Amino acid sequence: MNAPWKPAMSGQRDPFHAFVCDDHSHDLLAMVAAEMGWAPEKVNKGGMRNAVQSLSVSASPQILFVDMSESGDPLNDINSLAEVCEPGTVVIAAGQVNDVRLYRDLIASGIQDYLLKPFGADQLRDALAQAQAVFFAPRDAGPERPHLTTAVIGTRGGVGASSIATSLAWLLSDKQKRPTALLDLDVHFGTNALAMDLEPGRGLTDAIDNPSRIDGLFIERAMVRASDTLAILSAEAPISQPMLTDGGAFYQLLEEFRAAFECSVVDLPRHMLIQHPHLMADVNVAVVVTELTLAAARDSIRILSWLKSNAPQSRVIVVANRVHAGAQEISRKDFETSIERKVDVLVPFDLRIAAQSAKLGKTLAETAKGNKVGAACVSLLDAVIGAAEDGDAADGKPAKKKKGDSLLGKIGDLKGLIPARKDKVKA
Predict the structure, then answer these.
(1) To the nearest 10°, the Cα dihedral for 25, 29, 32, 35?
(2) CB count, 10 Å around CB of 21?
(3) From CA 82, how far away is CA 57, in angstroms rounded?
(4) pTM of the prediction?
(5) Which UniProt keywords apply (predicted)?
(6) CA dist 343 to 320, 333, 416, Å?
(7) Rounded to 5 degrees, what are φ and ψ at 404?
(8) Nearest to 106 by CA among 131, 146, 139, 73
(9) Which of 58, 125, 213, 217 has a 20 to 30 A CA-CA distance from 249?
């Protein structure tokens, strides 16, 4: 039963387990399992309930045979089984209900085959042989694409970086149909799960406390699903509990994401650049979210300079968020001159859309479809995809300089903007 973002894993898994309700099926399965070189003792008494309980505390086999004869709600029970099965497990079900609609529903839910009881030895051999062939068959994943890791970094608190991160993750998963992981590294005050009306769970705090537990199975069970193609890992750690980590858990999580998803979006608080700079080592695209203010311009300069020195492989995209028409502290032109590059995407401020997004528990991009804000989010998606496919590590062409290269010189330029701002206020 394949989870939408996790490929099958053939290593360190028993080839076969079975859970059956009657003695005849038990003996027949044990005999055929022995013929195929599998351990007969892996055929267990007990049906669906026993299978769910057992697999919730142990690794799933390559092939799972489960008897649904005692199941009162087969489809619901299959969904419960899917929650504890590792991705890639090939499931064969058996039962006494001869109903073509049930058969179609079970196949649509992800099982490989459904056998009507009583079944014979030849029928069982054929079903198990086909399941084995399916498990070891090459997965047709379509055209191979390298993993896309995007870090979203806010230049200041309150610029809306988390809103941009959730929107980008939603667009990658919904519009691009790419299995996507969203990692919120604001462990104490993160809002990614809240923005999608989800409970964050304990996955991220468990990972920090026990990095040795992080593997494919941990990722599958710890992440919260927002949709079939989007999963979130976040936390609401107690504010009395300091985050004691060297960042190894975060790096390991990103490693597992690369194996399990096509895309990763990391909502990266700016202080993480100082504490854990290694997190940027494999980031393809860095989205720097800012506002058009003097303080944000100063911090944009510093962050862009840091990225150029410490993450040269990352393509940088600058997003000006929550831009009020005609009421900015610094004009876009002056802001771009100060940071010595263009603003790639400008997201207009729309209080109605922002409020509606919060009330509905949906991302800004989803709520603003057909709106200027939604169009800007789509432009960001296109810019991220284009930057990743381009493979160019340059962070944009610098604007013509006025005062030399030093950071002090750039901040001097910024200070020259203050009088103009004051004159405007007086007027």
Answers:
(1) -140
(2) 22
(3) 14
(4) 0.64
(5) ATP-binding, Nucleotide-binding, Phosphoprotein
(6) 7, 9, 20
(7) 80, 180
(8) 73
(9) 58
Burial classification of residue 238, based on how many CB atoms lie within 10 Å of its CB (0-12 exposed, 13-18 middle, 19 or more buried): exposed
> Tokens 């993993």 sit at which residue?
147
Contacts of 95 (CB under 8 A, 6+ apart): 67, 68, 69, 71, 74, 102, 114, 115, 116, 117
The share of the chain scoring above pLDDT 70, in percent, equals 87
Residue that has been written with the tokens 């230049």 in this structure: 155
Rounded-to-integer distance, Cα 168 and Cα 160, Å: 12
Question: Region 415-423: what's the mean pLDDT?
Answer: 43
Min mean pLDDT across 229-243, 257-271, 284-298, 403-417 is at 403-417
Does residue 60 or residue 144 have the better pLDDT? 60
- What token pair was written down for 118? 């009583």
Which residues, other chains included, contact 122 with Cβ-Cβ below 8 Å and sequence gap of 6+?
none
Would you state the torsion angle of the CA atoms of residues 144, 145, 146, 148, taken in this order, to the nearest 10 degrees? Answer: -150
At 13 the three-state DSSP class reads coil
Q: At 180, phi and psi to the nearest 5?
A: -130, 140
Report CA 40 to chain centroid distance, whole Å. 39
CB 70 within 8 A of CB 47: yes
Tell me the chain's radius of gyration from C-alpha atoms: 26
Crossing angle, helix 23-35 and helix 121-136, to 10 degrees?
A: 50
What is the per-residue pLDDT for 211? 87
Strand pairing class (230-233; 224-227): antiparallel
Rounded-to-integer distance, Cα 168 and Cα 175, Å: 10
pLDDT tens column, 344-368: 999 999 999 999 999 999 999 999 9
